[in-house]
Amino acid sequence: MKKIFFALILIAGTLRLSAQAPNLNNDTKPKPAERPVDGFYQKTNILNARVSPYASLRESDVMFSKRVWREIDLRDKVNMIFASPKSRLITILTDAIQAGELTAYDASSTKDDVNGDEFSVVLKAEEAMARFADSVLVPIFDKDGNQTGTVVTAGEFNPDSIVKFRIKEDWIFDKQRSVFEPRIVGIAPMVRISAAGQAFDEQPAFWIYFPEVRHLLVTKAVVNRSNDATGLSYDDIFMKRVFSSYIVKESNPEDLRIKDYALGIDRLYESERVKKALMDFEHDLWSF
């Protein structure tokens, strides 16, 4: 009876040892079977990061405010981090929208929202994703294999097709803190509209309220070509202005875009003029 008892103990011990993880560090103490760390330390700083709130702002303290719209071209070398397959911005946004963690707003022009960027109409997840896919004609066949018609369906979304983002921001001078700073209000992925075989200018697919998306971006690390330990999140990239962009519109009484009154290279000159005007305003604040 004792022999049978000791045999059972020996078998149980053998099964337990076989479940141990490989002892790569030559430790004398066995390790439990679990997924190994991909590296030599746990990367938790960004995963556990929290949003740094904006300083409170009162209307009576705003001495100057200017709204501008600018575009970020991912084909620019500085902005290639936004399109990295390891951490693609558009994938982060669409995954959050489909998971119900983020709200997408319709970018269509309405009577009350002429520019379509005032976050007035909420889109369902499937409606937001449908803005990316080109429509295709799918033939319909009967039971005998004869084509009886066609139906329009949305094609598959290719995240690499998103090469631009538009951001809407306010430049504000707060006299209480003596600070002139930009605050991003919204961000929109740009899509190229095609109809009747003709391609039109790129338009926002939908708008996302930036203060809401910050809670998501602060936990998403960006990829750096030179250093894997940058410790930067997407929220850092936007808040620290680590991107290249050009202005496409400034607030004006006629509500005109730059392309409405400038052509060709003059658009770039006008964009730089608006940018310089903002910088000159800040410089003149402290000039005596």
Total beta-strand segments: 10
Give the mean pLDDT. Answer: 84
Helicity, in percent? Answer: 25-40%
Low-confidence stretches: 17-21
The major β-sheet equals:
8 strands, antiparallel
Taking the alpha carbons of the first and last residues, their distance comes to 101 Å
Rg, please?
27 Å
- Note the beta-strand portion: 25-35%
- What structural class do helix, strand and pairing data support? alpha+beta
- Outline type: globular
User: SSE order, as H and E?
Assistant: HEHEEHEEEEEEHHEHH
State the helix count. 7
Protein described:
With 288 residues, the chain is an alpha+beta fold. It has a domain at 61-131 and 159-285. It has seven helices and ten strands. It has helices spanning 2-18, 89-98, 125-130, 210-217, 234-239, 258-261, 265-285, and strands at 62-73, 104-106, 122-123, 135-141, 147-154, 164-174, 179-195, 198-204, 206-209, 246-250. The strands form two sheets. Strands 1, 2, 3, 6, 7, 8, 9 and 10 form an eight-stranded antiparallel β-sheet that branches. Strand 6 and strand 7 form a beta hairpin. The radius of gyration is 27 Å and the shape is globular.
Brief write-up:
With 288 residues, the chain is α+β, with helices and mostly antiparallel strands. The chain has a domain at 61-131 and 159-285.
How does the SSE layout of this entry go?
Layout (H helix, E strand, L loop, with lengths): L1 H17 L43 E12 L15 H10 L5 E3 L15 E2 L1 H6 L4 E7 L5 E8 L9 E11 L4 E17 L2 E7 L1 E4 H8 L16 H6 L6 E5 L7 H4 L3 H21 L3
Antiparallel strand pairs: 1-6, 1-10, 2-3, 2-9, 4-5, 6-7, 7-8, 7-9
Pfam family, one: GldN
Protein name: Gliding motility associated protien GldN
InterPro entries: Gliding_motility_assoc_GldN (IPR019847)
